[in-house]
Amino acid sequence: MTDRSEQDPRPxxxxxxxxxxxxxxxxxxxxxxxxxxxxxxxxxxLGVKPMSLYYYVAxxxxxxDAIVDxxxxxxxxxxxxxxxxxxxxxxxxxxxHVLRRHSWAIGLLESRTSPGPATLRHHExxxxxxxxAGFSLEMTAHAYALIDSYVYGFAxxxxxxxxxxxxxxxxxxxxxxxxxxxxxxxxxxxLSTQHVLRPGYAFGDExxxxxxxxxxxxxxxxx
Length: 223
Fold this sequence. Notes:
Distance between the termini: 64 Å
CATH superfamily of the largest domain: Tetracycline Repressor, domain 2
């Protein structure tokens, strides 16, 4: 068997290791999307032969498990004995920002059947925060599902938007405004011209509004 320390033929690149393989997989997914991540594309990105990767990972499923764990590791954990609302808000906002960096992960986070240590720590901390606040087991399950459905759904919508902020929205909305001006879509025209296209608009600002409504509703279970 070839010595693992001899796997990287390109000068200046980090020596190949499991950590480097996993990080390379994240880089490929970030740059080209999860569909582009294959053993061959990963090997090409790392500058090695595809067979070299099998010293460090058994197959693509193991790579997917590992990169999902990387994403979970980047999300701030709530403090179990802290104020539940502040801690959940911190974690949820962090999750949104992480998913903006790794939008390919939105559909993968809850799909793995072999969760890694960062994934397990994450779920344990969220459950502990809600249970420690006094939520029943059933309400904890409801709250966690609702919060994550909101975060993942918002992240998915945010990633799909063809604009970011009022400046780029104006460029995208030009042809749409012409269609709205026909008189058939007065509410769309009103929303576009009087809200979306106004200076300072950012779709991301809607996140806190929706999150606070959800946390208000969940908090009523403790009253």
